[in-house]
Amino acid sequence: MVAELRLDSQRHHQYFRMSAEQMDELLSFIGPEVTRYMASGDSLLSLAYSYRLGHATVMKSVHMVCAAIAKTMMERFLPRPTQDTWEEVADGFWKKWNFPNCLGALDGKHVTIQAPPQTGSQYFSYKKTFSIVLLALVDSNYKFRVIQVGDFGRTSDGGVYAGSALGRGMETKSLHVPPSTSLPGAAHLGDVPHVMVGDAAFPLKPYLMRPFPGLNLTHQRRIFNYRLSRARMVVENAFGILSSRWRVLHRRINLHPQNVDTLVVAACILHNFLLAPRENMRLLEEAEQREKPATRTQHGRKQGLKRGLSCEGDLLHLFQLPTRQCVVAGQDGLKAFLKGVKNVYICKFDLLSSVFV
Hints:
By secondary structure, the protein is α/β, with parallel strands linked by helices. 49% of the residues lie in helices and 12% in strands. The chain folds into 2 domains: 1-76, no CATH class; 78-289, no CATH class.
């Protein structure tokens, strides 16, 4: 069957979610065994019947292939960031999304799983499903730069980040982040640190920016929220591309949580391996079609995966979410510093433009 599919490039791509050439390159990394399990989302039993193999054989093959991908391809396609890497990411965000000194967009994704036995409510999330959390830092081209997989579904994005290697590394300054520098074209405003961007679920830190909460914002603060939201949406798009390519993520995965962790890591590595601009746009369209019917904002405009960036009204709607008090409340010095960093960005964006672009 595989030999026949190689004769039709379109059918081969639909079946394996990659071209025959990309399949050959992947096989050069992990050997002769590869799986359709992630691409189709079919159950292991269904695949066993399709290939006329035993259920245990198929299950073992899936586990072995995912582990092989994680072991042999991690260093090349999801390496530990260096100072040069961070600078490359920051340059990409400035050129493509007009947000300077940005180290990446940060967010969490819940991967639905079958409820593990004797775990109580540990994996039960606010979405009323059992899940594990994928925390990801994404660059301007939808590429995963840092991931952490396996936290309990009941844990908030902020809680997952606080306990992650990324969160601890940023706090202890051990991740080779570039030193503070002035924003492009605004040297008179002084040096500001490099930052990640996240939504209201994350705490405000010197290295982590989140939007201003509330609706009654000044024009300058709305511009800041727009720019931050524009940069942050790349991580949402990356999750959409990931799920559209590996449709197993659209289903409830009936594997042991430890094996789900390996599968998700493998999916993220293959996402980076297969990354291509044209393919990204097609998968984004596919992900948007899978979304539930979009809700309407106060201006009557539809809000979707990409349409959410289309206008000021949609952006304000984007932040009508419950927010938590900043974790630095009470620490006057640090709070003043964080406010100063935000004000520098506000001044920079105000210099660039007085309208939403």
